[in-house]
TrEMBL record:
<dbReference type="InterPro" id="IPR036291">
    <property type="entry name" value="NAD(P)-bd_dom_sf"/>
</dbReference>
<dbReference type="InterPro" id="IPR020904">
    <property type="entry name" value="Sc_DH/Rdtase_CS"/>
</dbReference>
<protein>
    <submittedName>
        <fullName>NAD(P)-dependent dehydrogenase (Short-subunit alcohol dehydrogenase family)</fullName>
    </submittedName>
</protein>
<dbReference type="Pfam" id="PF00106">
    <property type="entry name" value="adh_short"/>
</dbReference>
<comment type="similarity">
    <text>Belongs to the short-chain dehydrogenases/reductases (SDR) family.</text>
</comment>
<keyword id="KW-0560">Oxidoreductase</keyword>
<dbReference type="InterPro" id="IPR002347">
    <property type="entry name" value="SDR_fam"/>
</dbReference>
Length: 257
């Protein structure tokens, strides 16, 4: 299975499980040298040992220097995969500002900080690849998860900006936007996830497969659930109709909680 990433230096954040672990496994199978990052050092080491990679534990915003050293100074692919999700805000509830701040920091600003560190070397040599795990919530939205939905929109907007700004200088950007994926994060979404995401949930390995195919086809937007493209078009073509439909789902969720 050794392929196009033979010898490439790859960093995957939030790779102690779920999508991140699947990405680490897939890049390693393709011949890459993989740095496995996670806040949980034990989980990072477990996956790194499995794939023959290097574990670098810690906050995704602060590990690039160590990750670069582990890869002999060169990061070819950076997967901004670490993310957090909190329950949303029901009518009448107070805003949880800590949840919002953490969501912005992990789901958006960690990507910004990584890009700031990576871009000088990438632009100098004329190549580099930034992979952002966004979620379909960044293209559409998600009931019961306001901080997650809003910040994933921000992650997508930043990925778009990176692509339009630097693609002519050799920087490739990919935004992965799956719906439900069978991970611990999906399990934590509760009744909203059960209603909207569980029925079509896929395995993390399917997301990794979709990414590799999207890279081969040089696509920015990677949709492991192809139906998301139609939802996105419907949202753009008739926002009021789309919002009405989403509000029906919201009402169904409220009635069955």
């Amino acid at each position: 299975m050794v392929g196009a990433f033979q010898g490439a230096g790859v960093v995957v954040t939030g790779a102690g499980g779920g999508i991140g672990a699947a990405l680490a496994r897939r890049f390693a199978a393709e011949g890459a040298r993989v740095v496995v990052n996670d806040l949980d050092a034990e989980r990072a080491k477990h996956v790194a040992d499995e794939v023959g990679g290097i574990a670098v534990a810690g906050d995704a915003s602060a590990i690039l220097s160590d990750a670069r050293d582990a890869l002999d100074g060169t990061v070819d692919v950076y997967c901004a995969n670490a993310g957090v999700a909190f329950d949303g805000i029901d009518a009448g509830q107070a805003l949880d500002e800590k949840a919002w701040a953490t969501s912005w920091d992990v789901n958006v600003m960690a990507h910004v900080r990584a890009a700031q560190e990576l871009l000088p070397a990438w632009l100098e040599r004329g190549s580099g690849r930034f992979v952002s795990t966004v979620s379909a919530a960044g293209l559409l939205t998600m009931i019961g998860a306001a901080p997650y939905a809003v910040t994933k929109h921000g992650a997508l907007a930043f990925a778009e900006w990176l692509s339009l700004t630097y693609r002519h200088r050799g920087v490739k950007v990919h935004a992965i936007c799956p719906q439900g994926v069978r991970t611990d994060m999906l399990a934590a979404t509760g009744s909203a996830g059960d209603l909207v995401l569980q029925p079509t949930a896929i395995e993390p390995e399917a997301v990794a497969d979709a990414l590799v195919k999207g890279i081969e086809e040089d696509r920015f937007l990677i949709l492991p659930h192809p139906e998301v493209a139609a939802y996105h078009q419907a949202r753009a073509g008739d926002p009021d109709r789309w919002l009405t439909g989403m509000n029906r789902i919201q009402q169904q969720w409220e009635e069955n909680r």
